[in-house]
Design a protein that fits this description.
Length: 169
């Protein structure tokens, strides 16, 4: 629980833009005095007292692969995929590691902007993975997806990815 709260704090304080984290409430309080309505992925709702709960609020995202599938223009698909790599690059640049880097469930899009959504395993205690290694791993996952879903976007993605890799320190 402490590690998860620490991860949420990192997301809120350091990566708010990259995670679209809006609010963090880690201690029980008496001043909020509002109910929260939680809605799960099946549409079931539950009302809870905000003061009695620890919670984090993020903008709602569309899972990355669902978003990329919704695009029809190969250029937009390549740009979207590249923006996912840039999110991981920015997190890594700030010295933050994601111990649970499962690309297919950890990233999404909010209003067309790439975001990291599964933020429960962020750490600054250990050094992050080498940047190029991390981006290559993510890139391979994206490559496989693009090759299967929209092969016309693959050469565009590879060219843009290669430019990104050449710009790395």
């Amino acid at each position: 629980r402490e590690e998860t709260f620490s991860s949420y704090k990192i997301a809120f304080e350091t990566l708010a833009n990259e995670t679209k984290t809006l609010y963090l409430h880690l201690n029980r309080t008496k001043h909020l005095k509002v109910p929260l309505t939680l809605i799960d992925q099946h549409g079931k709702t539950l009302k809870v007292a905000a003061d009695k709960m620890e919670f984090l609020i993020q903008r709602r995202a569309v899972l990355a692969l669902d978003y990329l599938r919704s695009l029809t223009d190969p250029e937009a698909i390549a740009d979207g995929a590249l923006s996912l790599l840039r999110i991981a690059q920015e997190r890594n640049r700030q010295g933050i590691d994601d111990k649970d880097l499962q690309f297919f469930k950890n990233f999404g899009f909010v209003d067309g902007e790439a975001v990291e959504i599964d933020i429960g395993e962020l750490t600054v205690d250990s050094p992050p993975k080498p940047l190029k290694q991390e981006l290559e791993t993510l890139s391979l996952q994206l490559q496989e997806f693009i090759a299967e879903e929209t092969p016309a976007a693959l050469p565009l993605f590879k060219r843009k990815r290669d430019l990104l890799f050449r710009s790395l320190p």
